[in-house]
Amino acid sequence: MVQGNPLALGNAGGIALALGIPTGIMNIAHNYTWLSFIRKVASHLKARAIAQSARTLLILYTVLVALVVVLVAVAAFTLGFFVVQMMQGGQGGPPPNAGAVGGGFLLILALACPLVIVGLVYLVWYIVLLVQTRGLLTEYLAEA
User: Fold this and answer.
1) If you average pLDDT over residues 25-50, what whole number do you get?
2) Quick one: DSSP state of residue 6?
3) Average pLDDT of the residues of the chain
4) pTM greater than 0.70
5) Which of 103, 128, 129, 110 is closest to 67 using CA atoms?
6) Is the dihedral of CA 128, 129, 133, 136 positive or negative?
7) Which of 13, 35, 46, 136 has an alpha carbon 20 to 30 Å from 19's alpha carbon atom?
8) How many Å apart are CA 140 and CA 144, to the nearest integer?
9) What is the DSSP string of 63-132?
10) Neighbours of 130 (CB within 10 A)
């Protein structure tokens, strides 16, 4: 713990949040741009199956991003609700709606399961798409 300023860690968290949000948005834009580029290259080289796969992967990535946004919103709401409930707690007793907070954490876990599944499917599909695109480009350059 910082001895001089007890709010220093909070300020550092604010700075990390201020830098992390634009970085996350730029990473999302980077992935959309890269997948769109792969789709256009495959379309230009008349590989319709690979272009369709890239388009489907773009849709899957959109679902993954939406799941992350929903999970972060639910987690932030649950954490805020938890902090408010802890402030209202009496002397030595549990806070008044402790069950609702537990339900919020269960909701976070329930949202994390499809997020992990969609993330793994995206990862495998992305690797397969890269291998297929590499094969397409190798074949195209061998003909040229």
Assistant:
1) 96
2) T
3) 86
4) yes
5) 110
6) positive
7) 35
8) 6
9) HHHHHHHHHHHHHHHHHHHHHHHHHH--SSSPPTTHHHHHHHHHHHHHHHHHHHHHHHHHHHHHHHHHHH
10) 12
